[in-house]
Each structure stands twice: as C-alpha cells, then as structure tokens.
Automatic annotation (TrEMBL):
Annotated transmembrane regions: none
Domain HTH araC/xylS-type as annotated: residue spans: 206-303
Pfam families the UniProt entry points to: HTH_18
PANTHER family reported for this sequence: ARAC-FAMILY TRANSCRIPTIONAL REGULATOR (PTHR43280), HTH-TYPE TRANSCRIPTIONAL ACTIVATOR RHAS (PTHR43280:SF28)
Recorded superkingdom: Bacteria
Species lineage: Bacteria, Bacillati, Bacillota, Bacilli, Lactobacillales
Stated name of the protein: Helix-turn-helix transcriptional regulator
Organism: Lactobacillus crispatus
Amino acid sequence: MAAVALDQYLASVLKSNSTDKNEIKLEAGNPDFDLFTIYLENHNTGIHRYQMDVSTILYIAKGTVTIKSGEKIIQMKSGNVLLLTEGCKYEILSQKPDTVLIKLKFKRGFLYRKYFKDFSCKGEREVKVIEQIVDSLENEHVLWLKNNQITRASQVMQHIIGGYLNNDLFTKALIQAELTTMLIISIRTQRMATPTSLDKTKFEKKTLDNYIDLHFADVSLSDAAKYFGFNPNYFSNMVKAKTGKSFVDHVDDRRMQEARELLAQPDISLREIIGRVGYSSKSFFYKKFNQYYHITPAAMRAELFRQANINLK
C-alpha cells in the first residue's frame, strides 16, 4: 500500500466511523500478528485522556496534534513519532480536522529498555546513546522523535503500518526489522549527543539564552514555555530552580546588555532604544537600568561617548 494511498485509506476510515469511542481499532491483516495493535485517534468530542497500560508509539501520518504529557505540551507535526512508556499519562488537547494520528500499542511485556538493549551495540558511542534513550524514557516517560513526512524514517513507518494491514508472508519478522530501522534512522537524523538533542522538551540553559537572544524584544513567558514544551508555571519554576534566576530576570539581563550597546551609538535616540529592547514605559526602563547598572541611561551614554572620544557639542 503506497504512502499516499495509506493516508487516504486511514482518512476514509476516520470519516466513515460513526462510533463515539476515542480510539478506532484497525485489525491486522494477519490474525496471528502479535507484536502490537494499531488504533486511530477518533475526532469525536469529549476528553481524550489516557493512561497507558502498555508501551505505545504515536505517529502523525497527517496534520498536527497538541498533546499534554505531565507538565509538557508537545506540538506534534506530520511525520513526528512519540514513544510512550507503560504507565505514561497523556491527553490529546487538539487536532486538526484532517489529522491522522496512529497508535501502535505493543503487547504486554514489551519494554523499551530490553528492546533497545538488544540493538547490536559494538562501540562506546552506541552504548552511550542507548543508555541515554532508555534513561530519558524511564525518567520522562516520553521520547519525541521529530522526523518529518519526507524523511526515510517516516517512509519506513508508513511501510510498517501498511505491512500490518496486509497479509503478506513473514510480516512480523519484517515489521520488527523495519521498526528497528525506523528508530535507528530517527536517532541518526537527530544527531543525538544527549537526550536533549532528541527531545526538545528537555531544558538547557544555553538553549534558553539562544532563544532569548532572538526574541528578547517581544518575548513572553507563555511563548517561551510553549517553545520548550512546558506549561508556563512549570517552565517558570524550572528556570528558577536550574539557573537561580527567574525567566524575567534572564530577559531583563539581555535587554540591559542590548541597551548598553545601543547607548554607545550616537544616531539612536533614547526613546528608540527603549522600544528596541522591549520596554513600553520610559519610567520602567529607567528603573530597571538604574537597578542593573547603578547609573542613569544618560550618564551611561555620556561615559560611553567619552570612552569612544565622541563629542556631540
């Protein structure tokens, strides 16, 4: 079954479904297939909240989905894969009308730790990567693989689903091999050095600094939290706990650094500087500047001009 035909077939299953169940079971083409069972996420109204009793893989064949798992808000796109451990709780917050969300629910007893440990790991790098993946799954209960629809990993995933629906020879053996291939390609594509490279929902201070560098003029806590995959309250507390400073303090620090650089340029007015660094109130900017540098902006500008031998008189 071709990828495009598969998408169309699954969309037609959703469209023709008249039940009010959250999940639509797809029967395997081979009745003896016992590795996993595939379900489609229905588009019925109501709360779509789950607690997994088996290990599960979510795959977005088409469209976009917003998922909440613990404190994480995960914006999944077409081609994305999400590994969920047994016991993981998650909720489908929203999905577009044309979204096709596929779930591979493994049989009881399937454990990611054992599955990944069975990979042929010959070198230290491979062993380290597998350990990081397993640790991430056991600690976070989810692992987000950000493939897109045109990657080889996504194409293999489509083939896995097609193989499940058909009744060909050696289906289980082939799907097991393809599942391993899909995961290895995903890991390679993401160029994983640490779990954070694979799972962007995990936080790094360097990444936060880079994000603020790009958005300090109009950044908000809610936007930053959404970018990193957390809800705002959790994100705010996490930043404070891991860096010793609040998110607002990080933004103010960056704005003050930018303000100082702009003050050294004689062709930019103070009013323009205030707007450029993200403040709307002159008095509030002055207050922040004095707290940070213990000097007024005008005095700082005069000193910077003096150091650069700039005389405007």
